[in-house]
């Protein structure tokens, strides 16, 4: 290549260089001092090499009237947001299935705030994602709206922008993954909260307003680190996955994207015979359901969402022989696996997410039913638990139900799509047991008169134990299968094969990937 460069090309190269870390050294150094990465470092780690096509790289903040133009080119490079299209995980899924839109907020530019040209860039790339059916990964670090864009003279409140509505409109059309590190307030937090999957580092603070807006509203003076720390947002379900740092968050985003990109050819799994001993023979003993999930799934393929929220139900993605599926499971180590209001919301929302993007669902059920009682009703249980029926009954993707142990009452029905015959296949392990409610309670209620009629306490206890044993015998999985309430009782070691055969036989979803069926409810 000739060393002589035409002046116009040289000018372009110089101008483009002002957007890069090699020229913006002070901004990069400030990020590194905090232990953070630059926006372009996150971008380079996310996308495949030489695949990124940038949109709007030459934009600057709309502040030419108040600041030197050359300074704006460096200090407000790309107007604080990098946008473009690229491939992600191309080596695993090929060129076509790896295409994605990318948005990376740049906190080194005016604290990642959203300005006039910034919004135009955001709208442009999101509209392209909508038209081309591209999944989107968005890094959301930033402080919300920007008041200092003095070049804009035709706006009053600046609320006639479409970025938020376009982003929200993508729900149910293309997968959207949001990644955050650092401060994420106001408009940036709305973008984060609208996403299908939210990933945040341990050094994240996420809130619907930052300190200035809170103080301006007369609500007190707070440090930014007091607003929406990760300890709060993890427990209340705002954050799906907590990452250690930006590198970890980026790796998680790529892995999450893979579940929507297709089947992996290479996979391994654990010895399935180990499943035979994972549910204790003593039915009163709890057990770690994640051990079952990780044994059942392809190695290193299980990714859990919202583990600290609604803990009695586990939700996440996994692969079976390379095929991605959604997973819901009761965790009997929390509230005995009863579905409470938080876990009902969590499970319903996850079912919607899987249904929107054509991921089959595997349900590993072991529940005494819905959480009941006065305290539960204070959490709007009637509305929130009923929602799981609505989500499951309207799902168009196949559901396979495996009852590990208890399948009691309405909660068990809700866990498997609304009824025991809603799944394409309903099977139980030999440890399965069924009833309209917990069998102990059923005996106490159903035989109340008989029990009260026995005056001797020891005799009454023996009668109760005899009736309970009879109820257990009648509620065994084999009896439920014999009465056709479930389809089969299976050897736990055959679970993977049973699920895969059932999914292979199931009809395709009623709508194919990329065609909107319904939005994914944020909660």
How many domains in all?
A: 3
Ranges where pLDDT stays below 50 over 5 or more residues in a row are: 511-517
- N-to-C span: 56 Å
Overall pLDDT level: 90
Number of helices: 21
Number of strands: 15
CATH architecture of the largest domain: Alpha-Beta Complex
- Helix content, binned percent: 25-40%
Question: Care to describe what's here?
Answer:
The protein is α/β, with parallel strands linked by helices. The chain folds into three domains: 253 residues, 2-enoyl-CoA Hydratase, Chain A, domain 1; 191 residues, Alpha-Beta Complex (2-enoyl-CoA Hydratase, Chain A, domain 1), CATH 3.90.226.10; 36 residues, no CATH class. It has 21 helices and 15 strands. Strands 8, 9, 10, 11, 12, 13, 14 and 15 form an eight-stranded mixed β-sheet that branches. Strands 1-2-3-4-5-6-7 form a seven-stranded mixed β-sheet, with helices on both faces. The chain is elongated and about 100 Å long.
